[in-house]
Every structure is written in structure tokens, then in C-alpha cells.
Amino acid sequence: MLLPLLSLALAAEPAPAGVVSAASAPAFRIADGKGTATLLLGPSTGSTRAAVDTLTFDVGAAVPAHRHETSDELLVVVRGRVEVTIGGVVSTAGPGDAVLVPQGVEHAAKVLEAADLVQVYVGPGPEDRFRAAPPVSADTTR
């Protein structure tokens, strides 16, 4: 009787804090093959309140207009330049700039210069759409 209760209690414990290696994280081809999304943190790694991904885009890549009904999206541009349209307002973001897309607001992006970004979803879930894209094989450079 005690063993089933113990296993239920252990299953309810949060995942331990730690480091997720980008080299071992799943990566997917996105933006019609002009980008890569690497899924670092999210529900599958024990992070139930947020997800963290890295995005790499070639110049000319585009993300069509869409919205996330239950998640805010935060982006930090590490390298390159992107034009973002958020709620109909067009802006350009470059290295060191942060972008906030509130939940439910339509947004899109165009890559003006090859870019690397860090993407955070506060409520995780939208990053799961990347899993429908072709995976990056282990022998392919991200």
C-alpha cells in the first residue's frame, strides 16, 4: 500500500534543476528550411511554466502571421536583424534588443540579416508546433 503512494508522490515532484545541453536538445528545420529551432526547456524537461528555445534563421526567412492564445512570447536578438510586425505595428530589432508579443496578439517576422534569437514562451506550448517540422539529424550542423 505504501509503495503506490510513494510512487505517486515522486511523480508529483518537479524535475530537478540543471543544464540542458544544446547539443542533445531536439532541433527542427523551420521557415521553409531557412531556419532551425532548438527546443531547450519546456514540459518535456520539467519546465511547466515556460519554454526556452533558440532560433537560427538565414537572411530572407519569414514567419507568417500567427498568434498564441495562452502564451506571451519573448525574444532576444543575439545576432542579425529582424523586422517584426506585432498587432499591425512594424519594428526592427537587432543585437541585444528584446521583443515582447503579448498572448493573443497577431505577429509575424522577416529576417533582414542572418539571425540568432533566444525565444521564451511564458506558458509553454507553442513551441510544440516545431516538432511537426523535419528534425535536424545529429550529423548536420545546426
Short description:
The protein is mainly β and about 140 residues long.
- Please summarize the sheet with the most strands: 8 strands, antiparallel
Average pLDDT number: 85
Total separate domains: 1
Distance between the termini: 49 Å
Low-pLDDT regions = 1-12
Query: Architecture, CATH level 2?
Result: Sandwich
Shape: globular
Order of helices and strands: HEEEEEEEE
Query: What helical percentage do the residues reach?
Result: under 10%
**Proportion in β-strands:** over 45%
Describe the structure in your own words:
The structure is a single chain. The protein contains 1 helix and 8 strands; from the N terminus they run αββββββββ. The chain is globular. By secondary structure, it is mostly beta strands. It has one helix at residues 2-12, and strands spanning 27-30, 35-41, 50-57, 62-66, 72-86, 89-93, 98-101, 107-122. A hairpin with an 8-residue loop joins strand 2 and strand 3 (50-57). The longest helix is centred in the N-terminal third of the chain and has 11 residues, at 2-12. 8% of the residues lie in helices and 45% in strands. It has a single domain (24-132), classed as Jelly Rolls (Sandwich). Strands 1, 2, 3, 4, 5, 6, 7 and 8 form an 8-stranded antiparallel sheet that branches.
Please write out the topology.
Layout: H1 2-12, E1 27-30, E2 35-41, E3 50-57, E4 62-66, E5 72-86, E6 89-93, E7 98-101, E8 107-122
Summary keywords:
8-stranded antiparallel beta sheet; 8 strands; 142 residues; single chain; Jelly Rolls; mainly beta; disordered N terminus
